[in-house]
Amino acid sequence: MRFGRDITGAWCLVVGVAFLTACLFTSTAYADDQVRFQRSNHLVSDLDQAFRVYRDVLGLNLEAVRTLPLGGYAYDLFQIPATAALRFAVFSSPSQKNILALTEVRGVDGLDHHEHFRFPRVAIVLESPEFDTVIRRAEGEGLMLFDENAFTTSDGRPGRQRGFHDHDGNLIVVYKISEETDK
């Protein structure tokens, strides 16, 4: 079996990455919530290439980059071959700390995640006041963009959204909502 073909294994990988990121970077201060969402985590094949999308296109702030220990817990938890080298990066927005993580998996043949799945399984959706700038940057990076879509919020405000894939096929949707209502 090639890595990524088993949906159960892929789901375990996603859950495991979320668990590891919570363990590495979580504060122990919780609100009254039973569960606190920490961040999403995407696997990428080249972290430096991914920086051009998440830092330069989306405008997120790179907070930290770490090399994960070879043979550490992440390998068993995520079913990653022991030959892989892992690096981990965390990003923040100006108003929110540690909202997104990327885990680079290197040294594994055939680890082209997006080619193994017919449909994207996950997407991050980001509101951006700089919607047009983000889209221009994504086009300049040569990313695959979907057509823009207009929508109306439940309270009548018009919005615009557009999706694109990063270099590894991870789906990103950016949107902007006008403060004026159509009502």
Q: Would you kindly provide a written description of the structure presented here, covering whatever features stand out?
A:
With 183 residues, this protein is an alpha/beta fold. The protein has two domains: 1-36; 40-182, 2,3-Dihydroxybiphenyl 1,2-Dioxygenase, domain 1. The protein contains four helices and eight strands. It has helices at residues 7-25, 47-57, 73-78, 131-140, and strands spanning 40-44, 61-67, 85-92, 100-106, 123-127, 149-152, 158-165, 171-177. The strands form two sheets. It has a four-stranded mixed β-sheet, sandwiched between helices. The chain starts with 6 loop residues before the first helix and ends in a 6-residue tail after the last strand. Mean pLDDT is 78; it is low at 1-27.
Strand content: 25-35%
Compute the number of strand runs: 8
- What Rg do the Cα atoms give? 18 Å
Give the overall average pLDDT: 78
Q: How would you sum up the global shape?
A: globular
Considering DSSP H and I runs of 4 or more, what fraction of the residues is helical? Answer: 25-40%
CATH topology of the largest domain: 2,3-Dihydroxybiphenyl 1,2-Dioxygenase, domain 1
Largest sheet: 4 strands, mixed
Would you state the CATH class of the largest domain? Alpha Beta
How many domains is the backbone divided into? 2
SSE ordering? HEHEHEEEHEEE
Give the strand order of the largest sheet, numbering strands 1, 2, ... along the chain. Answer: 1-4-3-2
Task: Based on the coordinates given, report the CATH architecture of the largest domain.
Answer: Roll
Give the count of helical stretches.
Answer: 4
Q: Any idea what the CATH superfamily of the largest domain is called?
A: 2,3-Dihydroxybiphenyl 1,2-Dioxygenase, domain 1
